[in-house]
Automatic annotation (TrEMBL), chain A:
It is found in: Endoplasmic reticulum membrane. One of its GO terms (biological process) is protein N-linked glycosylation. InterPro entries: Glyco_trans_ALG6/ALG8 (IPR004856). Its main location: endoplasmic reticulum. This is Alpha-1,3-glucosyltransferase. It comes from Lipomyces tetrasporus. It catalyses: an alpha-D-Glc-(1->3)-alpha-D-Man-(1->2)-alpha-D-Man-(1->2)-alpha-D-Man-(1->3)-[alpha-D-Man-(1->2)-alpha-D-Man-(1->3)-[alpha-D-Man-(1->2)-alpha-D-Man-(1->6)]-alpha-D-Man-(1->6)]-beta-D-Man-(1->4)-beta-D-GlcNAc-(1->4)-alpha-D-GlcNAc-diphospho-di-trans,poly-cis-dolichol + a di-trans,poly-cis-dolichyl beta-D-glucosyl phosphate = an alpha-D-Glc-(1->3)-alpha-D-Glc-(1->3)-alpha-D-Man-(1->2)-alpha-D-Man-(1->2)-alpha-D-Man-(1->3)-[alpha-D-Man-(1->2)-alpha-D-Man-(1->3)-[alpha-D-Man-(1->2)-alpha-D-Man-(1->6)]-alpha-D-Man-(1->6)]-beta-D-Man-(1->4)-beta-D-GlcNAc-(1->4)-alpha-D-GlcNAc-diphospho-di-trans,poly-cis-dolichol + a di-trans,poly-cis-dolichyl phosphate + H(+). It is a multi-pass membrane protein. The chain crosses the membrane at residues 155-171, 180-203, 230-250, 328-346, 392-412, 424-441, 453-471, 483-508. GO terms for cellular component: endoplasmic reticulum membrane.
TrEMBL record, chain B:
It comes from the Eukaryota. GO terms for cellular component: endoplasmic reticulum membrane. Residues 1-43 are annotated as: Disordered. Its EC number is 2.4.1.-. Belongs to the ALG6/ALG8 glucosyltransferase family. It holds the Pfam family Alg6_Alg8. InterPro entries: Glyco_trans_ALG6/ALG8 (IPR004856). This is Alpha-1,3-glucosyltransferase. PANTHER family: DOLICHYL GLYCOSYLTRANSFERASE, DOLICHYL PYROPHOSPHATE MAN9GLCNAC2 ALPHA-1,3-GLUCOSYLTRANSFERASE. Keywords: Endoplasmic reticulum, Glycosyltransferase, Membrane, Transferase, Transmembrane, Transmembrane helix. Residues 1-13 have a biased composition (Polar residues).
Length: 510, 549
């Protein structure tokens, strides 16, 4: 586990250049997530551990698992030297220059975990086959998703995905135990990675805990690799124990879980994540308008309780039947199970990564109260497969372009707008060309027509974004403010669903 | 399409940038694919060359060029997130407010009022092309939000969206003029010197990421890139033997910002030289003279024509414009600037000892004397290789000796100096060029610090030096090495002292004075070195190197 001190020059240069750019983003817009993390710094620094998950002076209570709380506590030990003001729980919305610089810097430093993970991935491969790995690592490191969410909006995703990449590399090296422990650590940092847990669970079960070849020897007891299973169970449980033991001692676990899983939230987030429910909601809105305006149906004459007005708790529909949490849960589970089957039959690393991507897809597309940011859970695993062969590129482009553009509404202030457009465009432009030159060609089974349709669809983003940017100039749309966001999320959801279908096809039938 | 991947997959992930590039598919394929004795300047691997090696397949070199432009734009946008000159500093604010105010008055007032309206509050003091540019920007901006440019009531407006709009106008102006000019110049240089097409991206990046211009235009806030871009278009067209087009662009540059005069003497000498040597070419001379006159006339025509018959007639207008753009009444210098007058003033109180008239005459004579060698050399030896050295020598001479110089005017000599990087001048010259770029950015430090652009100053300076690995490069001569190392030590020392020590109360400007003295010394040394280069280029290049006769 010794840390490799020297980074490969290519990666090191990329890191320096990207840090230079990110430093310039210090004065940029910050979302409330900045205040969320400042508040957590304050809570972990000034409150005793037993109050961490009860403290509610700020509305942004601590709702991440314990490792993230410990991480914030660790950061707060340094924060006191930058500006003690940020560590006062009552200092709501405190954002002195030192606070901004400290938090932004801590984020940039924490990104080094991602760099370390990518470096490991990079050095896995033989020297003569590094070009594709290099391209993939760069595409993840320079992802507009991390730039928009972490460096402008403000979160620590790059660090968490660094742990994921690290774990994937361990899995690829057949170091299953290390991979499992890292993933358990990751879950104790941010529970959203539960989206990917089924693939991990099934894969570890299949290749590490079971030995199906024993079936042919008719030894039922031999099917289970007892030593491995016990080892795995103990390691994962001990990770959980390390994370939760103080709170188990204090008897606060139910309180933590209440914070981690707030089921009172609605089906869709304030801004709809581009998934199936976005399409469902959009259909509902359209039907509602048709009924009200065209059919003059009196039932629908009352004012629109808009889904997109920023109310988090709404899950009711005007025309279509309401969706129950159970429905979304069943759908998600169903699609995740389908994704696991090919992996269980042929348990290769690539199938495992594919299953991860599909688990991410299923949770993102069908899950309850999904955030648009969760698309990274799909994009990152998928990236590792993008250069498998040419057929994977089309779903990859659909996913990344739709996914990254769906993040645009997170940044709505004018100074950062050109940055988000240009950075994302530059990313698409550069990696489209690089990947295009690197993906191995496979002429059989290529459906050119679908590729064409996908490209036309992607080009459609240009008029869409122009229209959305000039939305205010069209007087007829005044009063239909929700339409702007609805357009983006429905169009992006089409792209992501298309990518899901294409990728599932490749994954299940090849 | 199917075969293109083969050339890249066979390379290692970290290919050396030196591998020869098969330029078959490239549009520059007609050039010598051997790269004409590869550039000795890029022998050592820089981060930039490594990055670009990803794109070394001929098919993707076009991609690399576009990516370089996008990256340089992104860094400009990043700097633009910072504050601008005069932010929340009423009543006069700064250059940002001046530019905004010009958009306001040009949009709302008839042309004949432009150069007369309330001169105490940022009266228009740039030539007409800037005024027209402001008018267009003001007209578009007023469509977006009229209160940004409402007459009189919009003064000191600090709407965040106005800032974004203004920043974007700088970016777009640069994208339309400066960046194409750089591309055109680099393409010509690479073709002319038979360099590898891969070098195109390296050269463009070296020029586009020049720190001083980014910090002044996108941080402090000005439109220097427009004037510099027009001048560069002029120089490039002259080098391409499109003399009439070149002189038109040069006049446009002069009409955008009078500071382009710094370039005028060598360009004039060169054009005059190729009209006379090797034999008199009267038609060329006449066509050049006509194109200059006609362009001037066309630029001034709208103002002159619209004022005919009014109380302030055409003659008054022209005189007023000249008075406004050549403010002799404003003294030898305004702010601290690293030229000879301000530096001398630290030791001898010039403004007390001599009258303004004497100083004006003195500055006129010294400027004339210091520019004269450039004029004579380029007139007698009008060589393409020498033109840019002459332009930079003249610009340095103007910057160091002339009247009413601003610290921002250091951008003028820096442009031609930085252009030399495109021709791959070798490590020795590169080291001087990177050095003087760094000194110039340092000389802007007091201004940028006042603007609140400390973070941007350090990040952009670091980025440019790191990308080009410029600190690894030192000149051949011992004297050069010592000069560069000592001046860097001085810069670091001055920054450290300013950070750590309060200046003594009787000299509150001590660090600034140290800054301008050090910068002036370096600039003066560089001017001498520049003259050596000019002399060599004039003597070594064969006569008639490509100019059609």
């Amino acid at each position: 586990m010794a840390l490799k001190c020297s980074l490969l020059p290519a990666l090191r240069y990329a890191v320096v250049a990207s840090i230079c750019f990110k430093l310039l983003l210090y004065p940029a817009y910050r979302s409330t997530d900045f205040e969320v993390h400042r508040n957590w710094l304050a809570i972990t620094y000034s409150k005793p551990l037993k109050e961490w998950y009860y403290e509610d002076t700020s509305e942004w209570t601590l709702d991440y698992p314990p490792f993230f709380a410990y991480f914030e506590w660790f950061l707060s030990q340094f924060a006191q030297y930058a500006d003690p003001g940020m560590l006062v729980v009552g200092n709501l919305d405190y954002a002195s220059t030192a606070t901004v610089y400290f938090q932004r810097t801590s984020e940039i430093v924490s990104e080094l975990v991602l760099v370390y993970g990518l470096q490991n991935y990079f050095s896995l491969l033989p020297d003569n086959n590094r070009q594709p790995a290099y391209a993939i690592a760069m595409s993840i490191y320079f992802s507009p998703g991390f730039l928009i969410i972490d460096n402008i909006h403000f979160q620590y995703n790059a660090m968490l995905f660094g742990i994921l990449v690290w774990s994937l590399v361990a899995m690829k090296q057949q170091r299953m135990l290390r991979g499992a422990v890292l993933f358990a650590v990751l879950l104790c940092f941010k529970h959203i990675f539960l989206y990917l847990a089924p693939a991990y669970f099934a894969y570890l079960l299949r290749v590490y805990c079971l030995d199906l070849s024993a079936l042919s020897r008719n030894s039922l007891m031999g099917v289970i690799r007892w030593k491995n299973s016990i080892l795995l169970g103990l390691s994962v449980i001990s990770v959980a124990l390390i994370a939760f033991s103080p709170f188990i001692y204090l008897g606060q676990v139910p309180q933590i879980f209440k914070r981690l899983f707030p089921f009172s939230r609605g089906l869709c987030h304030a801004y709809w994540a581009p998934n199936v429910w976005a399409l469902y909601s959009a259909t509902d809105r359209v039907l509602f308008l048709v009924f009200r305006k065209v059919l003059k149906n009196p039932v629908y004459a009352d004012d629109m309780a808009s889904l997109t007005r920023g109310l988090v708790g709404i899950s009711s529909f005007n025309v279509l039947p309401d969706v129950q949490p159970r429905t979304t849960f069943l759908l998600t589970t169903f699609y995740q199970l389908i994704a696991l089957i090919p992996m269980i039959i042929t348990p290769t690393h690539d199938k495992f990564v594919g299953a991860l991507a599909l688990c991410g897809f299923a949770s993102f597309l069908f899950g309850w109260h999904v955030h648009e940011k969760a698309i990274l859970l799909v994009i990152v695993p998928f990236s590792f497969l993008a250069l498998k062969d040419r057929r994977y590129l089309t779903p990859f482009y659909l996913l990344t372009v739709s996914g990254y553009i769906s993040l645009f509404p997170l940044i709505f202030t004018s100074p950062e707008a050109p940055i988000k457009y240009l950075y994302t465009f530059a990313w698409i432009f550069a990696f489209y060309n690089v990947f295009d030159g690197l993906a191995p060609v496979r002429t059989t089974h290529r459906v050119f027509l679908l590729d064409r349709i996908a490209h036309v669809f992607l080009l459609g983003f240009i008029p869409l974004l122009l229209f959305v940017a000039l939305y205010d100039k069209f007087a007829i749309f005044s009063g239909l403010e929700f339409l702007r966001l609805m357009l983006i999320s429905t169009y992006c959801s089409l792209g992501i669903i298309g990518s899901f279908v294409g990728f599932s096809w490749l994954y299940l039938f090849t | 399409m199917a075969t293109s991947h083969e050339s890249t997959t066979s390379d290692s992930a970290v290919p050396t940038p030196k591998s020869e590039v098969p330029s078959i598919a490239d549009e520059k394929s007609s050039n010598n694919p051997q790269g004409g004795g590869q550039q000795n300047g890029t022998d050592d691997e820089t981060p930039l060359s490594l990055f670009l090696s990803t794109f070394k397949a001929a098919r993707t070199q076009w991609v690399a060029r576009q990516v370089i432009i996008m990256i340089s734009l992104l860094f400009r946008l990043g700097v633009g997130l910072g504050p601008y000159s005069g932010f929340s500093d009423p009543p006069m604010h700064g250059d940002f407010e001046a530019q905004r105010h010009w958009m306001e008055i040009t949009y709302h007032l008839p042309m004949k009022e432009w150069y007369w309206y309330d001169l105490q509050y940022w009266g228009l003091d740039y030539p007409p092309l800037t005024a027209y540019h402001s008018w267009v920007m003001g007209a578009i901006g007023s469509r977006i939000k009229s209160s940004w440019f409402a007459l009189d009531t919009s003064r000191g407006c600090e709407d965040i969206n106005l800032k974004s709009y203004m920043r974007n106008t700088v970016i777009i102006s640069e994208l339309l003029i400066y960046i194409p000019a750089v591309s055109m110049f680099v393409r010509w240089t690479i073709k002319n010197q038979k360099l590898s097409p891969l070098y195109h991206s390296i050269a463009s990046a070296a020029i586009l990421l020049q720190p001083a211009l980014i910090l002044i235009d996108h941080g402090h806030f000005q439109y220097n890139a427009v004037m510099l871009g027009l001048s560069l278009l002029a120089i490039t067209n002259i080098l391409m033997d499109k003399l009439v087009v070149g002189s038109v662009f040069f006049v446009l540059s002069l009409c955008f910002k009078q500071m382009a005069l710094y370039y005028s003497i060598p360009i004039f000498a060169y054009l005059l030289g190729i009209c006379i040597f090797p034999r008199l070419n009267l038609p060329r001379f006449i066509s050049l003279a006509l194109s200059v006159l006609v362009t001037f006339a066309l630029v001034f025509a709208p103002i002159i024509l619209t004022s005919a018959g009014g109380p302030k007639g055409p003659y008054d207008q022209v005189v007023q414009i000249l008075i406004r753009i050549f403010p002799f009444a404003r003294g030898l210098w305004e702010d601290k600037v690293a030229n000879i007058w301000c530096t001398l003033n630290t030791f001898v109180k010039l403004k007390v000892l001599y009258s303004s008239d004497t100083l004006q005459r003195l500055s006129l004579v010294t400027t004339f004397v210091s520019v004269l060698p450039a004029f004579i050399l380029l007139f007698l030896y009008p060589r393409k290789k020498a033109l840019i050295w002459g332009v930079s020598a003249s610009a340095w001479a103007f910057f160091l000796f002339s009247f009413q110089v601003h610290e921002k005017s250091v951008l003028l000599p820096l442009l031609p100096v930085t252009l030399q990087l495109a021709g791959d001048p070798g490590v020795n010259a590169q080291s001087y060029i990177y050095w003087i770029n760094n000194v110039a950015v340092f000389s802007l430090w007091p201004l940028l610090k006042r603007d609140g652009l400390v973070l941007q100053y350090f990040v952009i300076s670091f980025l440019a030096n790191w990308l080009m690995a410029s600190f690894k490069k030192l000149p051949d001569s011992l004297l050069g090495k010592v000069t560069i190392i000592l001046s860097y030590a001085g810069i670091v020392g001055l920054h450290a002292m300013e950070f750590l020590i309060e200046p003594p109360s009787q000299y509150p400007d001590l660090w600034v004075l140290g800054n301008i003295t050090l910068s002036f010394g370096c600039f003066a040394i560089f001017l001498l070195w520049n003259y050596v280069q000019l002399y060599r280029a004039c003597m070594q290049s064969p006569p008639n190197d490509g100019v059609r006769t």
